[in-house]
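Entry 14. Two folds queued back to back today. First construct below, sequence then structure tokens.
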Amino acid sequence: MTVAKAMKGTIEWIIIVICLAVIVGTTHWTRVQKRIAVRDKDNLDEKASTVTRQRRIIYNDDGGGQYPHVNPRAAEGAAGFLSARFQPCVDTQVDSYFWCVGDGQTPPWGQPTPEAIGDANQVMIEAAHGAEMEIFASLRMNDVHDAAEPELIYPLKRERPDLLLGQRDQYPRGSGPKDSVMRRCWAGLDYAKPEVRDHKFQFIDALCRQYDFDGLELDFFRHPMFFKYGEIEQNIDTMTDFVRRIRQDLDNIARTRGRPYLLAVHVPITPELSLRIGLDVQRWLADGLIDLLVAGGGYCAGEAPYEQFIELGHRYKVPVYPCINTHAHSLYTKQPDQLFVPTIVERMRAMASNFWTMGGDGVYLFNMFDVRARGNYTPPAHAADCFNELGDPETLTGLDKLYGTDEMPWAFLGYAYNSWPSQLPAPLNLSVPIRLRISDPVEAAADSGLLKELLVRARVSGLEESERVALMVNGTTVPIINRIATDNEDEYWFEAPAAAPSLQQGINEFVVKPFTGAWGKRETMVEEIQVWVRYK
């Protein structure tokens, strides 16, 4: 009995100790949970203010400036590296710098950074924060530039060709049709394969834990194909789950470091075009997976309906930034002897004005560092002045602008099939109405005496020298005063002065149609419409 009593007493004490431990542990865990809740609330509060911060201009740097073959000064070290692209953005309307960290391989594109620079990611972070700029790591989700190389560069692509969207021998560059999307996109990774998603996730997780970026951009426009044809619809949830996995990882990192880690996505121009390639952006917005949205590749920025994503993003309190790409063909116009050559500056001003009118939260610039000569066009020395113009509708007021239709060659790296289609070219015989948004208050400017000129220009191909055309603006015929030959045979520009209110702020309709002496040939095409708005 004595032993039994002793055992009973011991068991009672053990039970008491366990209960006390449970109580203490529960109290401690409750306190931990409260601290986590407070910290999460602080993170959420800070995140809300960070998401809605001012981003007048977001500058995307593709990372090429760290390599001497692109930027000779990179060999000098960090100062030379930063001088090429970053330094011109300092103390301008550029509030956010999106630094491309490559496509998921280390080093980016298999090219090591010069030793004189050191860690390019860290150099960029310190420079941006030192200039009080926000900085995001921008990751290309399916870069296919290596499809044009003799051999694939990306290690995973070489080791696991079964993870690709296609094979080189299926789509030979030398013999395949030039208008084929798969001519380049065969070299993309197939996100239907879990190995691909795990590979990309591991890269993202390691990158974001190592570097103190303010956020991560998933660049889905480089390049816009992630699943094989015929397998897209059944993989829409696959990509949504992958984005959700990344969102959760960034939230975990944010808790650890005590401040938000934002997630931006760069997607095609409209929700429908995005869904076409397996990106259910509306679901991402509804589920709170993303913080910023960059719309479009910037190739058809003059005509695209960016308001679709702007309205959708704002419905979920997510800012939206339409994109301008300086590689867009429509920014450059070939003219003989530099006659009346429109500049990239006026074209980008017009695009940015439209973005602000549509309700955009800022302007996203892609390839701005690569404003190069096209045809006989030489970019103006003041192209960089755009950094202090495009990011505010007030600074755009009273500046000359060039509005116009877009040109998008189908074979341009597979972008065309997922960009907004231009209204032109169209047969002259059909007299197709062309709609353009003009954001300048031309009527008010005319009334105040500030307006110098409104000039409508139409480029028509396949014309005989004797043929004439007529031009209408919002139902009113405007007199053509100039006919200018181009470098292309049988192609001409027709110029007509317009006046407010025949040309007005908002959506305008233009019609080019056959006139006296026209032959009515099927191949005669209206190629382009331009509207110059010039101030005194």
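Second construct, same run, same settings:
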Amino acid sequence: MNYNQAFQKWLTNETLEEELKVQLQSMQTDEKKREDAFYKNLEFGTGGMRGEIGAGTNRMNTYTVCKASQGIAEFIMAAGTDAMKRGIVIAYDSRRKSPEFAYEAAATFAKNGIKAYVYQAPRTTPQLSFSVRELNAFMGVVITASHNPPEYNGYKVYGEDGAQLNLEDAEQVISFVNDISDELAIEKGDFDSLLNEGTIQYIGAELDQLYGDAVKSVQHQSDQTMKENIRVVFSPLHGASGETVQTIMTEAGYTQFDYVMEQMKPDGEFPTLKSPNPEEASSFELAKEKGLKTDADLLITVDPDGDRVGIAVKQDEDFVLLTGNQTSAILIDYLLTQIKVTGEMPANGRVFKTIVTSDLGRVIAEYHGSSTEDVLTGFKFIGEKIKQYEETKEFQFLFGYEESYGYLIKPFARDKDAIQSVIAITEAAAYYKSHGKTLLDVLHDLYERHGYYLEGLVSVTKKGADGARAIQQLLTSLRENPLKEIAGLSIASQEDYSTQTRSFVDRRKKEKLSLPKSNVIKYFLEDGSWVCVRPSGTEPKIKYYIGVTSPTELESKGKLNKITKEFTDEMNTRF
């Protein structure tokens, strides 16, 4: 069925929701819109699905949500009666249609005889992960598009360990979802009836308290004077974390923890923001304004679903934004130092990071006596390692992080957890302030001790069907016509995660990579720098990650600028 046939099928469906009918009618004279909305089914991948909200098979709407939920229901039913009884937990953030999609999912599971637990108000992704574990549920779902623009929403799927589904289970779920050929033909469940029957159950405040108590357990310091001496401005960026953070930080004893009140209310339109993304400087505008008025030491912003966190540190009469790599370096050094002080550093401690994340954290972890392990991009792979080593006892989890502002301190949640990170970052800032230092001072000390590890990221957006083809053609080009150098530096080795091979310029025998297959290429240059090319799994983007190191800041900045410019120019010639 081509996109015009699919469009006509939806247009002529008599039971289609009125809102979607209106959108379809507006597409009748716009072939480009019709093609983009119907040229494919919204892809349900290993982490779930994400897309623009609207009418069409390639859009987030109640029909595509129902299709995904029915596929997952088939997977749960295939796992047996116990899995159905244990059920599935559903949470949602502040985005457009999030409650509607969450309740549609709950009704779909429940009509198939699967117990469905659902929150009645926005909750964070890490709390969903925690809730799956606490309720001993078989699976979990969170309706979110993280930090994407307002027109997007998504659907993330979790296993019984609270982590996003491992690849094996994800492939089975994908197969069940793809076996459903007609999303319009799925019988929808009646939410209210299923709620009255008890197959759907609302989650109460007891889970909020249990999660809050778990978050407070990441603290190492009990000095109340220290806590009262740090001044912080926080914003949830109109997302799900505001009330949770406010409760936890008050109970933890931080008396000068202030809030950007204009951004505390959950609102999927993100009315005060250019982008609800803590990686963007614009997300700090109102926090900075308040921070200057209150003479704050630290600004913290968290993305809408509460898994990513960004910080800015006071310097003179301004605030300096830290990258995810820099924040993780500070956290690793602080947390491992505190663990060592208590004499609780395990001999088999291990820190986990992704392949596109800075090596500075690795060097710091090794300095403190911890090993480090790389995983593919995506926190699901860190969650998978936590479970693996809990079972084998080979290593003990100490910290997990990725460059895109995601950190996990304690594994009572199995996804990156901005709420844990907020309390840990605040404590670190308070501790160092009591010793006459800011977090910027600490970062400078780390660079001086370990070297200036600097990183860059270039994201190139290619929307729609044409964009998807262009991104794939670029990766094909890199494989068929391999690079020999980047910015005048020879490539010492190349890792292609699609073929799971490491090859060398000196023609040594290729080595097999142990990580799973992924459409990613990473280059290691002769001077220790590296470049990684990776298509985004959640956005219509191709990303270039760059990492460099040298003994001085000036040298590292020069390297980073040169490699970034010349590599990006080379990629532009290949599009």
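Quick look at the second one. The radius of gyration is 24 Å. The CA atoms of residues 15 and 82 lie 35 Å apart.
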